[in-house]
Amino acid sequence: MIINIRKWPELIVSYSVMTFTVLVSIFPILWILLSSFKSNKEILNDPFSLPKKIDFQAYMDVFTQYNFLGYFMNSMFIAIASTLIALFIYTMAGYIFGKFNFRGKSFLFILCTITLLIPGYARAQPIFTIIMNLDLYDTKTALILVYASFGMALALFILRLSFIAIPKDLDESALIDGAGFWRIFWNVNMPLAKSGISTAGILMFLNNWNEYFYALILTTSEKNRTLPVALEFFNEAFSYNYTRMFAALMMVILPGIVIYVLVQEQVQQSVASSGVKG
User: Fold this and answer.
1) DSSP assignment, residue 151?
2) Which pTM value belongs to this model?
């Protein structure tokens, strides 16, 4: 293959930017992974060296000597429950916004998505007050409700575009055949919008899985502690044992990485498709 010499500068810049982006993204994770197999002495003396041997003892110690499985199950339960509740509500909302015209539709959609412009910390006081008044402080239910509300803006953007892309002729044909609102929504539109629904669900799950701030201020007991909050306690417990600390870090970030790697193609296709259609 012959490449026009005029394109060399463009190719060099493109590959340089891509290489830099990949290195910046992967290097911290790779460094944590390699450090989890090194001794304290190796980490302190030469932080960027390769481990002399691959030893999973630090992972076994974290898993067996601390309630890692309990924190993991808490995070998994809260992330899944909040994502399913959010998907159920926002899928119907996205369908209404995408398929129907009514007075105040644009204004209502802006109100629902304006939360993207408000920093998460700015909502801490009203959310904390509501949770206290509902007597849900230090419960998993509080985190599930809060996390379900966080995904509204992102989910509505994706789901509204997914339903807009479905031809209205299909709805009209189903209506002529006698189908009602729920049947048209469930049997006609839901299967065709599954790519957008999956993407919204995956992005919300990853956000809920990694959320730290509200898990810290809304829970205190160990039975409701999630993995991101548990990491802070791991840092205190492993303040002089960097090997275990990096092993714990790796075990926390690994599920999110695995999930994203498995579904990255679908997420990218859906986001790109939504951008083109929007």
Assistant:
1) T
2) 0.79
Contact 154, 203 (CB under 8 A): yes
Contact 134, 71 (CB under 8 A): no
pLDDT tens for 203-252 read 898 889 889 899 999 998 888 989 888 877 776 666 677 888 888 888 88
CB contact at 8 A, 217 and 132: no
Look at residues 181, 152, 148, 159 and name the one whose alpha carbon lies nearest to residue 91: 159
**Whether 159 contacts 203, CB under 8 Å:** no
Alpha-carbon gap, residue 116 to 5, rounded angstroms? 45
Tokens for 123? 């909502």
What would the two tokens of residue 39 be?
Answer: 């001794």
Report the C-alpha gap between 160 and 277 in whole angstroms.
Answer: 11
